[in-house]
Write a structure and sequence with these properties.
By secondary structure, the protein is an alpha/beta fold. It is 48% helix and 16% strand. Strand 1 and strand 2 (10-15) form a beta hairpin. Helix 4 crosses helix 5. The radius of gyration is 17 Å and the shape is globular. The chain starts with a strand and ends in a 10-residue tail after the last helix.
Length: 251
């Protein structure tokens, strides 16, 4: 599910579930949480490269595993998710994300938890949450406005339109565009540069940028737990699996 290697102070973490298109499933979340906890404790690691597959960075949440569930189970799912979000956002280790192919929903949100995003020129980005009757999560209501501003973030999240790499660069959604297949190499170059810099200023800078995240996650938990048990989310899941447009009634 994950591949992890080390290269002279830089750890490279790749999501590796090609059959699931690197869906941000519970097993994937737990694997990422364990890996990033280990790296945070490893003093030899000074920077992290985070990537996915050639065609799919990550398509976001596992649709088949979503839907109505008991309150305690729903809250536990959000706890695991938010443990990972906080670790990625508040960790002392800088992160450079390498995106090839699609980054959708929770996949896009994962990329936005990194300090620098490098994308291949054929990469595509999409919010996607509303299409299945859910609100944005994984901290994206904090990270996306921080990158593109509240007005642009509102349009990206409400309209769910696909954003090509060149447009994403223009908006500030990502930081670098390189030829397809070269994102990880450039991410490694940048991570090695970060690994040579003084670590304490980087850690403290990251902590300041994470200010306000906890408030967003609190609202996110309340809203998403409610929506998981909504009729519109049930319709959104079925419509997605049947490859048709959903019919939503606000229920």
């Amino acid at each position: 599910m994950l591949e992890m290697t080390r290269d002279d102070g830089v750890a490279i973490v790749r999501m590796n579930d090609p059959e699931g298109r690197n869906a941000f499933s519970i097993p994937m979340r737990l694997a990422l949480l364990q890996a990033f906890r280990e790296l945070e404790a490893d003093t030899a690691v000074r920077a992290i490269v985070f990537g996915g597959g050639e065609k799919y960075f990550s398509v976001g949440g596992d649709i088949k595993d979503q839907g109505a569930r008991p309150m305690q189970e729903a809250l536990n799912r959000m706890r695991v998710l938010h443990d990972l979000v906080r670790l990625m956002a508040q960790s002392s280790k800088p992160r450079v994300c390498a995106v090839e192919g699609w980054a959708v929903g929770g996949g896009l949100a994962l990329a936005l938890l990194c300090d620098t995003i490098v994308a291949g020129d054929s990469a595509r980005f999409k919010a996607g949450f509303g299409e299945i009757g859910l609100a944005p999560d994984t901290g994206i209501l904090h990270t996306l406005p921080e990158r593109v501003g509240r007005a642009r973030a509102r349009q990206i999240l409400l309209y769910n339109e696909t954003v090509a790499a060149a447009q994403a660069l223009h908006w500030g959604l990502i930081d670098h565009v390189v030829p397809s297949g070269c994102a990880e190499a450039e991410a490694r170059r940048l991570a090695h540069d970060l690994a040579k810099k003084p670590p304490l200023p980087i850690a403290l800078t990251r902590s300041v940028f994470a200010s306000g995240l906890d408030d967003v996650l609190l609202r996110e938990r309340e809203i998403q737990v409610m929506l998981w048990n909504s009729a519109d989310h049930a319709e959104g899941r079925v419509a997605f699996l049947e490859k048709r447009a959903g019919v939503f009634r606000g229920e």
